[in-house]
Amino acid sequence: MRSRPIGFLLATLAGAVLALGGTSAASASPSTAPASTASGDVGTADACYTWSGTLQQGSSGEAVRQLQIRVAGYPGTGNQIAIDGAFGPATKAAVQRFQSAYGLAADGIAGAQTFNKIYQLQDNDCTPVNFTYAELNRCNSDWSGGKVSAATARANALVTMWKLQAMRHAMGDRPITVNGGFRSVSCNSAVGGAANSRHMYGHAADLGAGSQGFCALAQAARNHGFTEILGPGYPGHNDHTHVAGGSGRFWSAPSCGI
Question: Catalytic site residue 237?
Answer without folding.
Answer: yes
